[in-house]
Amino acid sequence: MIPGGGSQDVIRLRGVTKQFRRYGMLKGMRTLKGTVMHRIRRRMQRIHSPGPGSLVVLDGVDLDVARGTTLAILGRNGSGKSTLLKLVSGIYRPDVGVVMTRGRIAALLELGTGFHPDFSGRENVWINGTLLGLDRKQIAQRFDSIIDFAELEEFIDAPVRTYSSGMFVRLAFSIAIHVEPDILLVDEVLAVGDEGFRKKCMAKVGELQAAGTTIVLVTHELPLVERLATRAVVLEHGHLYEGRTPAESIAHYLTGQAGPAGPFELRELRLLGPAGVALERGGPFELATRLRVLADVATPVLMFECNASNGTVAFAANTKDHGCKLGPWKSGDERELVVRGRAWLQPDLYALRIYAATAERGPFAFVGGADLRVAGRRSALGPCDLEAELTVSGG
Amino acid sequence: MSNASDAEWVVRTPARFGFGALVEHVRETWRSRSILAVLTQRELKGRYSGSLLGFGWTLLNPLLLLGVYSLVFSIYLRIDVPHYPLFVLSGLLPWLWLSQSLASGATSLMQGGMLITKVLFPPQVLPAVQLASNGLHFLLGLPIVYGLSVWFGDPAGWTLLALPFVIVAQAVFLLGFVLALSSTCVLFRDVQFIVGNLVTFWFFLTPIAYPASLIPEWARWVLVVNPFAPFATAYQDILYRGDLPSPRTWALMGAWAVVSVIAGTLLFERVRPHLVEEL
After folding, report:
1. What is the DSSP letter of B192?
2. pLDDT tens figures, A172-196
3. How many CB pairs under 8 A join A and B?
4. CATH number of the CATH domain containing A294
5. Is B189 helix (H, G, I), strand (E, B) or coil?
6. Measured between CB atoms, does B118 come within 8 Å of chain A?
7. CB nearest to B42's CB, from A4, A97, A123
């Protein structure tokens, strides 16, 4: 019997470790001469492999993903999220451990997913389709639909290197969804493209989810994670963390980011109000943040920021501009910042964030944050709700 | 959609070396034959796009070389070889297959970097594409050789039946070579320049423009260590002399082909785990 026969898992990682050589070392080995010199130097220093230059990106990672799951992988830049996706897609092989997948995998990795720049869009569709396991007939059947979805009718015979990044992503995404993958791997690319195409993609992602496609998503867009993911994991220091719910993982990720926030440590963060449930527009909320001061700070400044899901700042205020002079704070002090307000906001998912600075002019470092959802149907652009009514006489 | 839970698990373990890698390499190449076909087709179409003569260049290049060699060797140096143009061409065409495959095959992985780093792509296909597209050019040039032999009134006969076996042996031999070159070229860019220079030497050390009989006795060992010598001899036997290659020639060809393809594949698989990182 194949490993794990009856279960519904489609991705399995067991003790997967992946390490890379640091680039500095590679550089010396680009040429024959460089390598010979490098070997000699190493021999003389009596250093043996794997050498001091390797960087462990994943360290014994276990992960099971059941069919139909939409899994979000969170983590800081350089934490190994993309490496994990490349391992699942088979582009990388593990150094230790096993990666198992079943079914057809389509991957959208970074920009320019697997296109040959000198080939035309048409040729790349054929090549990619073939790579993804379609035969000639199947590609021919889907061809028009692929071009149509990518909105590339006029450019399909131009070399792909002349495409804009948006066109690149549109074509890549269109191919990936048209091969009807069992597993779809997406790395950040959904952030590219205009609003119209994004909407189309989201609708398509919803269809795929409904059809039982397993999706693995790497993104920094937390609202997207909240909207799509049925599971979320956080990758940090080569290990995976998973909360009981995606929201818990997100919270862990956000507090984990508080690490390098200067001399402040986040002790506690509470969002009062209807926990986990969406707020009515205009409803009251209260964000309470308890900080521990790790070093003496003469003139601390705290900042509160509220961002809409597309990243625009809906509201931001800091203690200094609010006429609230803080400090000096002593190492070991604890302070609580409470932000009370009313969500006069359009329906959307907002990121509430607290930043801190040690000087009046910043720089501000992220301390902690939480998400706030405002309920309702969106009927206007922009983050603010002016309660404006549009009436025309005579109807 | 195929039903994922019915599909078989694809298991990826740390890179294997040695015999296991060899078997997996062959299986993977077989599975990739359709992508090989698509890319080869594209390569043939793309090579001459924008050039006036197009495919004509493929025929013109060996004919120009043929003219120069005939002038220098047959007229200036007065080598005693009857039907000299036929003799040269029967060795020259397979040589061009080799030299062009090595030149473009060496850099093939570097040029196709995007495919290797961004999608699951069997990298051995890229050097194989160069081999295949140049091989097709070679095949299309063969009728010229036959035409020449008819023109000289001495057309090759039933011995032509042995030709496919020689061609397959050469393909296998070349495959090992381009696999080795393309992968080492990713690690050391020097390789492409080394190849360019070495190929020139190699040509003149191989009895293509001159018959092997001109090599003095004491230097005959060059023929044994020169892997292309038995191939050139075999083509000349079949296309020029109308003979079957000697058992010794067959044995040498087979040995070189097997050694080359095994060594080349092993080397390729050894470098392969680093490809994605290096490109």
Report:
1. H
2. 888 888 888 899 998 876 666 677 8
3. 129
4. 2.70.50.60
5. coil
6. yes
7. A123
